[in-house]
Model the fold of this input.
Amino acid sequence: MSAVSPRVAAVDLFCGAGGLSYGLQQAGVTVVAGVDNDPACEYPFESNVESPFLKMDVRDVTADHLRRLWRRSRFRMLAGCAPCQPFSMHRRGQDTSSEEQWSLLTEFGRLVKETEPELVTMENVPRIVSAGVFRDFVQLLIDWGYQVDYRSCNGVDYGLPQRRSRLVLLASRLGSVEIAPHRARGESPRTVRDEIAELPPLRAGEADPHDPLHRARRLSDINLKRIKASTPGGTWEQWPAKLRAPCHRKASGATFRNVYARMEWDKPAPTITTLAHNFGTGRFGHPEQDRAISLREAAMLQGFPSTYRFVPPKDPARFGHLGRLIGNAVPPPLAKAVGETLVKHARAYAAGAAS
Done:
């Protein structure tokens, strides 16, 4: 009989453009496949992760599918980030219980139960902890023999140049495991300057001829005047009254100070969303150039390397399409920290079993 491989082999459910898989690979995890029902994810996943992409709905994935992918790996990992729209801060107060995304975490749980991988990890928005479907998922993991740790993690503590809070869950059949910040106490976080200052300058509506993703959205005349009147870290309240939008003049407008605003060079970026290429949807103005950040800048602030490929060379870089892939991605630095924790955990178990 052949020896069992000691590697940690992961299947990435809801893999998207590959942010989770890319970070896991950097930590030494072997990603054997990514699964997603969005065909737009195939090119970035296979081009950067260099593992097979399976265009499938998770509801159609079976235990046999996963076993064939893992083969005889000693440590099998099931990883994923189920779509988080029902739990998003932007949906606060809305009844989302009828939306189909709620069942996706249950499907994740089904596959864990049917295959019993040694390691499980998932990432989502922090508010999911208040959802019954999440509490049920955690209890089922415990009932099936897993030791579970979950907590809200801020991306700046894991080398991400962005303030982004995400819930990370780790579960193991090998013993107790937990994720801890990788930034040393007192160490300064990475900033916008650290990440994007060296990119070629652009004007609104321009694209870098050498990198189609380094492309800035065109601004209307009024928005061009607004960004010229904006300072890094400032708000629209600094603008002349004639530049203010009708919503700003309402009493409720005072609560929306982080829209139509510039980032600051020497601080982490705000949370990069699917609309980070739009000046009017957040603090997404470039710190000094009169434009919104480019798609490439958004991706780099999400922790992707400057060389990460999102579209085939001859395909257009469409803002809506790529904004969605970038904004919904798991930041690779956070994924790398998760991977390093689980690889270390598996190696410690293997060493203990061998002694």
User: Anything to note?
Assistant: The chain has two domains: 5-185+331-350, 192-327.
